[in-house]
């Protein structure tokens, strides 16, 4: 079965045949080197069981790789209807292991697309990559792994640790919920057409339970306030939360002159938990 996928015509030929000129507004930067896409697919872990969810399969370079690497069931969500016939051809060659849904991944509940273990693997459209990731973090208990291509700068923000210049709200949210790992960095020339910036693949593996006790929505609020004004001391940047900031910082046992970039994930979780309790006391 995998052999039939490997024997499909070259991606460049398929793109030309279907007139799939890349559209910027859809973030279309295609991967046409199957050696590279197979390398990415192998970073996704054991894909022979459960469901692989691919966002934005485009002409199917990564899709083919997932199938060639033995994925039992790939469910792909693609916004561009021009990709349908191409993906149908891949589905047929794979013996029906690929199903495509046409639509906007931002509105799709990925946990409804197939059985666990669910692994999301994607060369993401960069304009919606961050909101997609934040949405998946909210459903992390239903997801086994996410192997995702981002702009390198965003990837660095996901894996950063306190004190790094890239340490960010995304790093706190992601590492509170998952183990994160930078897998590989890719130059613009790896894509067709090449984007302006470097790219990188990150794997996020959700932990069984979050690393520290607090609610994601509180962590989101606290990190948005803290990193919204990252150069300011927390005493100032957390003011927007609408609770007694001095009392919050005191109770969390952190130094009022600290800045967001120096706080650990655990400290952010402590603040988030206290923030909830203080709001409860206020109401
Ligand atoms: N996976 C292909 C590859 O690696 O060659 C294409 C990756 S390209 C960076 C991003 C893909 O996401 C495009 O095919 C684009 O049409 C699709 N896309 C863009 N926005 C989307 C959205 N909101 N929902 C689903 N797919 C989307």
Automatic annotation (TrEMBL):
Pfam families: RrnaAD
Keyword rRNA processing in record: yes
Alphabetized GO MF terms: 16S rRNA (adenine(1518)-N(6)/adenine(1519)-N(6))-dimethyltransferase activity; RNA binding
Domain named Ribosomal RNA adenine methylase transferase N-terminal: residues: 36-208
Main location class: cytoplasm
Catalysis performed (reactions): adenosine(1518)/adenosine(1519) in 16S rRNA + 4 S-adenosyl-L-methionine = N(6)-dimethyladenosine(1518)/N(6)-dimethyladenosine(1519) in 16S rRNA + 4 S-adenosyl-L-homocysteine + 4 H(+)
Subcellular location as annotated: Cytoplasm
Keywords: Cytoplasm, Methyltransferase, RNA-binding, rRNA processing, S-adenosyl-L-methionine, Transferase
Top-level EC class: transferase
GO cellular component, one term: cytosol
InterPro entries: KsgA/Erm, rRNA_Ade_diMease-like_C, rRNA_Ade_Mease_Trfase_CS, rRNA_Ade_methylase_Trfase_N, rRNA_adenine_dimethylase, SAM-dependent_MTases_sf
EC numbers: 2.1.1.182
Residues that coordinate or bind S-adenosyl-L-methionine: 29, 31, 56, 78, 104, 123
Function of the molecule: Specifically dimethylates two adjacent adenosines (A1518 and A1519) in the loop of a conserved hairpin near the 3'-end of 16S rRNA in the 30S particle. May play a critical role in biogenesis of 30S subunits.
PANTHER family given in the database record: DIMETHYLADENOSINE TRANSFERASE, DIMETHYLADENOSINE TRANSFERASE-RELATED
NCBIfam families xrefs: ksgA (TIGR00755)
Family: Belongs to the class I-like SAM-binding methyltransferase superfamily. rRNA adenine N(6)-methyltransferase family. RsmA subfamily.
Record-given protein name: Ribosomal RNA small subunit methyltransferase A
Species classification: Bacteria, Pseudomonadati, Pseudomonadota, Alphaproteobacteria, Rhodospirillales
């Amino acid at each position: 079965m995998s052999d039939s996928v490997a024997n499909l015509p070259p991606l460049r030929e398929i793109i030309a045949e279907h007139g799939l000129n890349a559209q910027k507004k859809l973030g279309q930067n295609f991967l046409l080197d199957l050696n590279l896409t197979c390398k990415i697919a192998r970073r996704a872990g054991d894909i022979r069981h459960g469901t692989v969810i691919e966002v934005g399969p485009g002409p199917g370079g990564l899709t083919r790789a997932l199938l060639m690497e033995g994925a039992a069931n790939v469910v792909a969500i693609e916004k561009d209807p021009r990709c349908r016939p191409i993906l149908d051809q891949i589905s047929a060659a794979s013996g029906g292991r690929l199903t495509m849904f046409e639509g906007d991944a931002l509105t799709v509940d990925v946990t409804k697309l197939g059985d666990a273990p669910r692994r999301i693997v994607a060369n993401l459209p960069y304009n919606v990559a961050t909101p997609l990731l934040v949405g998946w973090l909210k459903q992390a208990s239903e997801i086994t792994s996410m192997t995702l291509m981002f702009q390198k700068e965003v990837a660095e923000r996901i894996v950063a640790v306190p004190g790094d210049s890239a340490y960010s709200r995304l790093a706190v949210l992601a590492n509170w919920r998952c183990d994160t790992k930078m897998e590989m960095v890719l130059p613009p020339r790896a894509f067709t057409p090449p984007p302006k910036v470097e790219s990188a693949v990150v794997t996020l593996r959700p932990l069984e339970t979050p690393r520290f006790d607090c609610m994601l929505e509180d962590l989101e609020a606290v990190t948005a306030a803290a990193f919204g004004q990252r150069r300011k001391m927390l005493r100032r940047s957390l003011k927007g939360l609408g609770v007694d900031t001095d009392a919050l910082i005191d109770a969390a046992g952190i130094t009022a002159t600290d800045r967001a970039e120096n706080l650990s994930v655990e400290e952010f979780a402590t603040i988030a938990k206290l923030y909830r309790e203080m709001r409860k006391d206020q109401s």
